[in-house]
Each structure stands twice: as structure tokens, then as C-alpha cells.
Write the C-alpha cells for this entry.
Amino acid sequence: MHGPGSAAWLLVALCAATGAYCLLRMRSGVEEQRRAAGSEALMGFGMALMAIPAAVITPPRAAWALYAVVFGAAALRALWSSRSSAHHLHHLVGTFAMAYMAVGMAAAPSGHAGHGGAGAPLVTGLLLLYFAGYVLWSGVRLAPVATAGGGPPATGWGDRPELARACRLSMGIGMVAMLLTM
């Protein structure tokens, strides 16, 4: 996950800001939105930690194993939740990708990836295709649509669908960047 210094720090900032916004979204009055925001906050902060440049900190293998367990458990939770909402299938793919990258980092000879060779090329390629497609699809959904009759209803920060989509888009971009460095 550790690419060039400035790009890695930009990825850390993007993922941390996304995680922070997802925490704000957890204040929503809608329970399903709170749950989704909690899962996305975990992803955002987890991605930020994984993207910290290796020159700054190189976590021990046990840390990567802990990441794999945490995101493996999150993947199982997303699998269970996907019975009631198709959106959780995206969370399932995202948490699986995080667990997969953590296992790849733990298995890498030097304890961190970034020089290729960590993970199975087929799985990495499939995840890259999924997230690249997701980023394109999410970007199209963010395009403004003309509405007939006034602006959108006033809502709180946690209930703004366009901001939630932008949050998911930024995490998708971050996931593509992280998978490219594997």
C-alpha cells in the first residue's frame, strides 16, 4: 500500500477525512444510514492507516494479522446484512478487499507491499475491475440532475445523499490506488 510519499499522504488525508465525515453521518435519524456510515467510517480510517508511508512507520506482521481479523469480521457482518439490503454487498466487497490486502501485507517478505508480488494477481485484478467500475458508476451518479420545482429539501449533514455518494466515491478511488500498489 505504500506508494510515493506525497501520493501516500494525500491518500491518508483523503481516507481520514472520509472516515471523519462518515462519523458525522452516524448522527443521522435513519438507523440504516447510521449503520452504513459506521461501516464506511471503519473502512475510511482503516484505509488511512494502511496508506501511511512505510518510511514513517512499518507495522509489525501482527498488526497486519489484526487488520485481517477486523476486516474479515466486518466482511462477515456485511455478508449477514446483505440479506436485507443490496448496498451491503458493496460493503462485503470492500471489507473483503481490506482483509485481502492485510493478508497480502502480512505475507509480503518485508512486511509491507508496494513493490508488487503481494496477493494473487487474479484476485487483485478482479478487485481493481470492480472498484474502477464502482468509481465510474459513482461519479456518474454525482452528476447534477435538473429538478423541476425548487431545490432539495433541507436535511442534516448525516442525511445528504450526495455527500454520502461523494464519500463512497473517494473511498473507491482510494481502494483503486491501494490495489494498484499491491
About this structure: The radius of gyration is 17 Å. Helices lie at 5-25, 31-50, 61-81, 87-107, 121-142, 161-180. The chain has a mean pLDDT of 84. The chain has six helices and no strands.
